[in-house]
UniProtKB/TrEMBL annotation, chain A:
<dbReference type="GO" id="GO:0005739">
    <property type="term" value="C:mitochondrion"/>
</dbReference>
<feature type="region of interest" description="Disordered">
    <location>
        <begin position="1"/>
        <end position="86"/>
    </location>
</feature>
<dbReference type="InterPro" id="IPR035810">
    <property type="entry name" value="PEBP_euk"/>
</dbReference>
<dbReference type="InterPro" id="IPR008914">
    <property type="entry name" value="PEBP"/>
</dbReference>
<feature type="compositionally biased region" description="Polar residues">
    <location>
        <begin position="14"/>
        <end position="32"/>
    </location>
</feature>
<dbReference type="GO" id="GO:0005840">
    <property type="term" value="C:ribosome"/>
</dbReference>
<keyword id="KW-0689">Ribosomal protein</keyword>
<dbReference type="Pfam" id="PF01161">
    <property type="entry name" value="PBP"/>
</dbReference>
<dbReference type="InterPro" id="IPR036610">
    <property type="entry name" value="PEBP-like_sf"/>
</dbReference>
Automatic annotation (TrEMBL), chain B:
<keyword id="KW-0560">Oxidoreductase</keyword>
<keyword id="KW-0689">Ribosomal protein</keyword>
<keyword id="KW-0496">Mitochondrion</keyword>
<keyword id="KW-0687">Ribonucleoprotein</keyword>
<dbReference type="Pfam" id="PF01016">
    <property type="entry name" value="Ribosomal_L27"/>
</dbReference>
<dbReference type="GO" id="GO:0005762">
    <property type="term" value="C:mitochondrial large ribosomal subunit"/>
</dbReference>
<dbReference type="InterPro" id="IPR018261">
    <property type="entry name" value="Ribosomal_bL27_CS"/>
</dbReference>
<feature type="region of interest" description="Disordered">
    <location>
        <begin position="39"/>
        <end position="61"/>
    </location>
</feature>
<dbReference type="GO" id="GO:0016491">
    <property type="term" value="F:oxidoreductase activity"/>
</dbReference>
Length: 454, 267
């Protein structure tokens, strides 16, 4: 009797597994269940003499695996567990508490999906409401503002609910941690954003504030998109195949490396494609006459489309290929610092172009995505304030075109062996100029008569 | 007849008596002046402690340059124990918390709640009309403090061609020298110049040399091992190995560490 009772959940589980093997369980993605429940590969055939990299856990087995020139996959504990257990997919493991919990979570998810449906209906009904005002315009405007606020907050709540529906799914968590998350889904975007904010964004903001990029280049900057930077290196053996060297925020980059235009990855965490402007500004150009520093723009490009799935921007190939869309106003100038001058900060600012008058939130909720306004590259390239590199004022550029700073990256450059060569190749005047500290006259003080008080 | 109380003799009378008797006195003891009454000190504590903290000489701490004074880099602005004042713009702090000027300019004493709600700062501005703290979100005021000169011997710029790598080259200070086929280097080793101006093999090469030699010998079907590879269960091979080992160790003991050791042992 007790045995029957104990076996009932297991039997239920096995019955369920046969029926739900091809049905969607908790995941919202459309990936096949075979890859969703990534069943571990079967153990090796007892008559074969080759070792399985997934199940070799004893020292002798690992040695034989090394002789096969194969590396073990996963930790030794995992390999031992896999070799000693049968091949059951994770979601079908016959543990009562686990299956009860799964059932509870599935029920919770069903409730949340219903709530999402209701919220959608409410939102559409609210948007269909027409604002009517009695007096000339004051009341009408106020009511319109209130309606917009309500729509915006309801939209935010809807996005939250979409994330809440999938946040408890262990397969979603596993897929995200394996790097297989689909960035078109809000849950994976949410998880990626949380991961970025937990560490890398803090590092970036620390670098930007400690190195004073924030007050010098822009008055304020809250990064919303994550950035990554890499410079191409050409190896002498295979010049055709260029590899990329990643640069961390604030790193010193050698002049030979930064002579080539880099690749910038821009990862937004909200859905839709938007047009961005990328500006590389150096605020540390020494000016001896003014006894201060000038700004110089090393790169400027507008109308670059960025989305959660298309994140790579090759600054050297913008506008030339169909993959890299964008209008380059100022092509890449190699970063350089003259001898004796302090190190120069090269700040890469990502600016989002404004969207047209229709508020983007409304259209995103209905499914369509508001397009950002295209910046007129022709008129911008003719503007005398923004087509010169020296004295480029990014604050003025941002104000003129109504841009919003959404992301930034930073690297530094200083004089090294290759700088003179890079400057000569780029035709920059001043490769043989060096800076030396100005001698400051000491303050006059009363000199005593005796030699002892020199 | 009235009874008169005996009166004490007057001071004058006593003085006369004292002077009269002093001539008859044989010894001259120090007689305390009767006019001066001795007084005892009030308490022992007022004399001070033996092991207490003593106040030292004053260290001349405090401000050395007032607000608005013109200073040059290095000038001491404030001497203190601990940080009553913190270094602000263009100032730095020495190892004993002394605040120095970092650039030529005018001294300013100020508070910057954005930087810290309670701290007091000493900073330097470049012009007399400027004040601190600097307005928030504004580009910082900075001074270059340098002059541009023509380089006396301009560097030879290495123009990066396709042959030379634009990659970050590994800076290897060691120049590789292989003195092959020579008496000094019979093994044909790859010797690099290391720190201390020593031509030597690198440590990892030395460590791997044994493995390399074994692999080379194995390729020819031989081995550099003194004893054959251990086969568990082969007692005859194990006995032969131990016999050789025992004989070798006995020989080594007889010989001693050096020639002298052996000779000594014999005696």
């Amino acid at each position: 009797m007790t045995l029957q009772r104990a076996s009932r959940p297991v039997a239920q589980c096995i019955r369920q597994s046969s029926s739900t093997l091809h049905a969607r369980t908790l995941a919202t993605t459309t990936i096949e269940p075979s890859s969703t429940d990534a069943a571990p590969p079967p153990p090796s055939d007892p008559f074969s003499h080759t070792r399985n990299p997934f199940t070799a856990s004893t020292p002798a087995a690992e040695k034989q695996l090394a002789q096969q020139k194969q590396r073990p996959v996963g930790s030794r504990r995992r390999r031992a567990a896999l070799s000693s257990t049968t091949q059951i997919p994770f979601t079908q493991l016959p543990y009562q508490a686990f299956q009860e919990a799964r059932a509870f979570l599935q029920e919770d998810r069903r409730e949340k999906l219903e709530a999402i449906g209701l919220q959608r209906v409410k939102l559409v009904r609210l948007q269909d409401q027409v604002v009517v005002g009695e007096q000339d315009g004051e009341v009408e405007r106020r009511k319109q503002r209130e309606k917009d606020n309500r729509v915006r907050s309801m939209g935010r709540r809807l996005e939250e609910m979409k994330v809440m529906a999938d946040i408890n799914d262990p397969m979603v968590k596993k897929k995200f941690e394996d790097g297989q998350g689909d960035m078109t889904k809000p849950i994976y975007r949410h998880l990626a954003d949380a991961q970025w904010r937990s560490y890398k964004r803090q590092i970036l903001v620390q670098r930007l504030t400690q190195m004073n990029v924030i007050p010098d280049v822009l008055p304020a900057l809250e990064p919303i998109v994550s950035t990554g930077l890499a410079f191409p290196t050409t190896s002498s053996t295979t010049p055709a195949r260029s590899r990329l060297k990643r640069v961390q925020h604030g790193d010193f980059v050698s002049s030979t490396l930064s002579s080539q235009p880099p690749t910038l990855w821009i990862q937004p965490y909200n859905k839709g494609t938007r047009l961005c402007t990328v500006a590389v500004v150096n605020p540390d150009v020494p000016n001896v006459e003014k006894d201060g520093f000038d700004h110089r723009c090393h790169f400027l490009a507008v109308n670059i489309p960025i989305s959660p799935i298309n994140t790579r921007v090759r600054l050297g190939e913008l506008g030339s290929t169909s993959e890299n869309k964008g209008d380059v106003l100022l092509p890449w100038l190699p970063a350089y610092a003259q001898k004796g001058a302090p190190y120069q900060r090269m700040s890469i600012i990502v600016l989002e172009q404004p969207s047209p008058t229709l508020t983007p939130i409304l259209t995103t909720l209905l499914g369509a995505v508001a397009e950002s306004q295209e910046l007129d590259a022709e008129s911008a390239s003719q503007d005398p304030r923004y087509n010169v590199r020296d004295g480029f004022n990014l604050r003025s550029f941002v104000d003129r075109y109504g841009l919003k700073a959404v992301g930034a990256d930073l690297f530094r450059t200083k004089w090294d062996e290759g700088t003179a060569g890079v400057m000569q190749q780029a035709g920059i005047v001043g490769w043989d100029v060096e800076f030396r500290r100005k001698r400051v006259e000491p303050l006059p003080y009363q000199r005593k008569a005796s030699e002892r008080y020199r | 007849m009235t009874l008169t109380h005996p009166k004490a003799p007057s001071m004058a009378t006593l003085a006369c008596l004292q002077s009269a008797l002093s001539t008859l006195r044989t010894t001259h003891h120090a007689v305390p002046a009767i006019t001066h009454i001795t007084r005892r000190k009030a308490s022992h504590q007022a004399q001070g402690r033996a092991n207490g903290a003593k106040d030292g000489a004053g260290k001349r701490l405090g401000a050395k340059k007032t607000g608005g004074e013109y200073v040059v880099p290095g000038n001491i602005l404030f001497r203190q124990r601990g940080t009553h004042w913190f270094p602000g713009d263009n100032c730095f702090m020495g190892r004993d918390h002394t605040i120095h000027a970092g650039s030529p300019g005018y001294v300013r004493y100020y508070q910057d709640p954005a930087r810290h709600p309670k701290r007091k700062f000493i900073g330097i501005v470049f012009e007399k009309t400027q004040s601190l703290p600097q307005p928030t979100h504004a580009a910082r005021r900075r001074q270059l403090g340098m002059l541009a000169y023509q380089m006396p011997t301009p560097p030879q710029p290495e123009i990066a061609t396709d042959e030379t790598s634009a990659a970050p080259t590994k800076v290897s200070d060691g120049t590789t020298v292989s003195i092959r086929n020579s008496k000094m280097n019979p093994g044909g080793l790859q010797l690099t110049l290391g720190p201390g101006y020593q031509y030597r093999q690198s440590n990892y090469e030395i460590g791997r040399s044994g493995d390399k030699k074994e692999a080379a010998a194995n390729a020819k079907g031989k081995t550099i091992r003194a004893f054959a590879k251990f086969k568990p269960g082969d007692r005859f091979a194990a006995w032969r190995k131990s016999v050789v080992r025992v004989a070798r160790s006995r020989e080594r003991k007889v010989m001693g560490r050096g020639g002298k050791g052996g000779a000594k042992k014999k005696n």
